[in-house]
Amino acid sequence: MNGLIQLLNDVLNNFGMPKDFIIMASFYFIAALTCLFAFMVVTSRDIFHCAVFLAATLFGVACVYLFLNAEFLAVVQVLIYVGAIVTLFIFAIMLTTKIHDKAIRQVNRQVLVGGAVALAFLYSLIAIINQDPWKAGAGADKGYLGLDELGRSLMSTYALPFEVISLILLAALVGAIVIGRTYKE
Amino acid sequence: MVSVLTFIIMIVVGAVILGFIAVSAMFLIWWERKVSAHMQTRYGPMRVGWHGVFQSVADVIKLLLKEDIVPAGVDRWIWWFAPFFAVVPSVMVFVCIPFGEMFGIDLIPADLNVGILYIIAITSVCTLGIFMAGWGSNNKYSLLGAMRSAAQIISYEIPLVLSIITVVMFAGTLSMQKIVEGQKEMWFIFRPNLAIAFVIYLISAVAETNRVPFDIPEAESELVAGFHTEYSGMKFAMFFLGEYTNLFIVSAIAATLFLGGWQGPLLPPVIWFLIKTYGIITVIMWFRWTFPRIRVDQLMGFTWKVLTPISFANLAFAGWVLLK
């Protein structure tokens, strides 16, 4: 039985396909799709469509994390960004009256400045990304972001920054409630 | 390294799971009708096959052949893709559901080391599908249903996740297969902390699946049918499929986390897993004919003022028990 599987495997693998062909093909497909969705986020005229495309883009980024063997990061990306933040965006859109009736203009007077800032940001991102060889798929380091290690360091070495961030979040929550509440005269 | 053979195996496993989901959903619809009928001293479906077992098959054929009505004024893309967003996450969750073991092979498509976290993350995407359906329909009842549904799912996710975290603390792992193995000596439900967690999980799970007594998102007397009011034919069937798959998933997770998963004497593991899962589903169906629907303010008050504080206290208590 095992010999048969091995034989079948050899035949299929020598079918003129390079190693890791499936990983490569799926990576380029997902990367292209993510870029397309990201482009749609900024060009779409209906704000609800923008939010849905944003969710799809963030999902694509989570898939890229999976290619780097960072499972935990990918799952947390989906949980927090797709599951929580985009949902909040959509809540805000739904509670804002008649916002979807207006077709939003994509550009304003600051288009040139904005473009320049975006290009500068892209340049620095490329510079940072090029510092790492980024072995994806089978070659990626195991335990790229070990769950145990991450938890332990958040509770010991980085305990203070972790707590400070939660304090900032709490302050933002209280601020939102203060802004949103109606005062009774 | 993904060889072509593993790729083919993946596709076969995926096809088997899709088949299982479809058959399971059809069985659950028939079962729900039978359970409700017998609780009201009726017979339920009796005509198609023995005691109406093939009634769901007939219904599916009917839904497939129905005209696909697109109402005027819908947001076409959003409206078209919403059913997929409702079904696809439910199917993706099956990656981490441990069905048992057979001939020394673990029947779990992929035992991720972030298993239970993956399930929580993927199910949170379902909210997006409900939002898209409600918004795309361009109908006030749909929109109201979607808003209620999303608010409810987000609120009840907190006690749900907290009760799951309590289990993770006792198991010391996020992998579903290892959580099952950790219950070899004693099922988790027999530990006092986790018994409380189980009750909280079950209540939150019923709310997550939008079922009675927490079914205000599709309350017929107020909202026609909630977010899927405008859907007909196959798209409606997709929402139905998603709903019953979610019911299966929450019950399967409950069986895995609290009732020892596929472990049990004499019978094969897969049978034990299915007995436990469908047992919990039957209990949830029983709830439907026992409790009246509760109001929106009661619903929100219950989760924020009762369930969430109890789950936090339970979590702290579990930490104390573990460190003692």
Explain how this protein is built.
The complex is a heterodimer of chains A (185) and B (324). Chain A has two domains: 1-103, NADH-ubiquinone/plastoquinone oxidoreductase chain 6, subunit NuoJ (Four Helix Bundle (Hemerythrin (Met), subunit A)), CATH 1.20.120; 146-185. Helix content of chain A is 71%, strand content 0%. Chain A has seven helices and no strands. Chain A has helices at residues 2-13, 21-43, 47-67, 71-95, 111-129, 147-155, 159-180. The N and C termini of chain A lie far apart (82 Å). The model of chain A has no long low-confidence stretch (mean pLDDT 79). Chain B folds into two domains: 1-65; 71-323, no CATH class. Helix content of chain B is 67%, strand content 1%. In chain B, helix 1 packs across helix 11, helix 2 (55-65) packs across helix 10 (233-258) and helix 6 packs parallel to helix 12. Chain B is globular, with a radius of gyration of 20 Å. The N and C termini of chain B lie far apart (45 Å). The chains are: A mainly alpha (185), B mainly alpha (324). The interface between A and B is medium-sized, with 34 and 32 residues.
